[in-house]
Amino acid sequence: MSCISADASFPLRDLLKGKVTCKLNSEENEGGIVSSSEFDYEYDQFMLRLAQSGIPPEGKIASDDARKLILKGTAPAGLRVAGKLDLSNTVCLELPDGLQVDYLVMRNCKFPNLPQGLRAGVLDLTGCSQLESLPSGITCNILEMAGTPITCLPHDLRVKNRINLRASSSLTSLPHGFNCATISLRDCPNIRSLPELIDVNYLDVSNCTSLEEWPKHGRVRFGWLTARGCPALRYLPGWIGPIPEVDVIDCQNLVKIEEGANVTSWIDIAGTALRSLPDSLNGTQIRWRRVPVTKKMAFEPETISVTEVLDTGNLALRRALIDRMGYERFLREAEPEVLDKDHDGGGERLLLRLRMRGDENLVCVKVVCPSTGHNYVLRVPPYMESCRQSVAWIAGFTNPNDYMPLKET
Questions:
Q1: If you count DSSP H runs as helices and E runs as strands, how many of each does the chain have, helices first?
Q2: Other Cβ atoms within 10 Å of 17 Cβ, number
Q3: 283 Cβ partners below 8 Å, 6+ apart?
Q4: Strands 243-247, 218-226: parallel, antiparallel or unpaired by DSSP?
Q5: Which of 21, 157, 205, 347 is such that its CA lies 20 to 30 A from the CA of 227?
Q6: Cβ neighbours around 187 below 10 Å, total
Q7: Is 102 exposed, middle or buried (0-12, 13-18, 19+ CB in 10 A)?
């Protein structure tokens, strides 16, 4: 019997729903790894169904039998495994050379010894706390490596559909020319730049706090770019797109998007320092924390008045306008009610309330930084009754009596 593969002319979701029949063609699917132009997370379920079908592909053994051989240390080289092979939470495990497996799970393994040339449909190494590098020659469709201490990836790593490197705190770079449909680098604090000739459809670099440089040449197209909370980013390159969505919320030092950037649907620029968009984005919808706004609201916040805000009936838009004005200026001009006042190491504190038509009351605490003397106006829940309670809530205390800082800076 030949290896089971999906005919590329059929959508994978149709295969999963039983609308079409799997082809048996070993030449098109060497190693038994299912592929499709529409491959996505449904691949996981497809592989499980394959493992449970009772018709193991030629040359493959069941995952339970393979697991026993590997744990005994007697697995032969070139082992081919059907279905989901789960080796999670093992220690110092030796895998055979030339291993091919539909779905390999090694979550939270200590000192995993992966073989060179490993081939897998899905390879899950999430939480492998001792995994600092990968061997050469790995090929897979999905690679999960969130929360590992990996520092770099081998130049010949091939991942077709998705690689998840979220919270890999030691990762500093990706290989030159690395391409994959979806790349997640969210919460990777030591990534400073992306590689030349990167090619990706969906890119998430949110909270990459050291990311400051884009390659001179690359492609992010067809999907989306999410780059929230990247304080070192100062610009977006002109080669981005065509892409429907871009989210750069709270990239506080982002001052420029280069001409040529092509965003076909929307771009969310809340919390950035942008004062304009290039001509190439003239038809792009501007958003402020998911709310569509005008260019005037986005780039001329000084023209927004308290009257305009209070007369706005749409609650989401009203909140976006307040956020764009800034709480300090809005409350200063709106003349709110003072609920409470006291003093701390920085000086006077005020608890302010403004009643909002059709919405919950806006309550904020105004404090002074003891180190810089700068005023901060911070929104708190509307049920706050005192400055002390509000500041304790901001610090994470539900009982203000538990909040007793020795010194505030």
A1: 8, 21
A2: 10
A3: none
A4: parallel
A5: 157
A6: 20
A7: buried
d(CA 160, CA 142) in angstroms, rounded, equals 7
35: Cβ contacts below 8 Å, ≥ 6 apart = 5, 6, 8, 29, 141, 160
Using one digit for the tens of pLDDT, what is the confidence trace for 309-332?
999 999 999 999 999 999 999 999
CB contact at 8 A, 360 and 381: no
| Contact of 29 with 5, CB cutoff 8 Å | yes
Which H/E stretch holds residue 23?
A: strand 23-24
Q: List the one residue out of 130, 178, 131 whose CA is nearest residue 154.
A: 178
Rounded to whole angstroms, the Cα distance separating 4 from 22 reads 7
For 241, residues 6+ apart whose C-beta sits below 8 A from its C-beta are 220, 221, 261, 262, 263, 264
Using only the alpha carbons of the chain, give its radius of gyration: 27
Cβ contact 185:191 at 8 Å: yes
**Rounded to a whole number, what is the distance in angstroms from the first to the last CA of the chain?**
72
Give residue limits of the domains in the chain: 61-301, 336-402
**pLDDT tens per residue across span 225-279:** 999 999 999 999 999 999 999 999 999 999 999 999 999 999 999 999 999 999 9
Question: Cβ of 21: how many Cβ atoms within 10 Å?
Answer: 9
- Give percent helix, percent strand, percent coil of the chain, each to the nearest 5: 20, 30, 55
Residue 248 CB-density burial (10 A; 0-12 exposed, 13-18 middle, 19+ buried): buried
Whether 224 and 246 have beta carbons less than 8 Å apart is answered as yes
Q: What are the tens digits of pLDDT across the range 162-212?
A: 999 999 999 999 999 999 999 999 999 999 999 999 999 999 999 999 999
Closest of 201, 211, 268, 213 to residue 237, by C-alpha: 213
Residues 6+ apart with CB under 8 A from 231: 209, 251, 252, 253
Q: Residue 29 contacts by C-beta under 8 Å, 6 or more apart in sequence?
A: 3, 4, 5, 35
- pLDDT score of 37: 37
pLDDT in tens, 357-388: 899 999 999 999 888 889 999 999 999 999 99
* Helical segments of 247-405, H only: 295-299, 306-310, 315-325, 327-334, 387-394
How far apart CA 237 and CA 87 sit, in angstroms, is 42
In this structure, which topology does domain 61-301 adopt according to CATH? 3.80.10
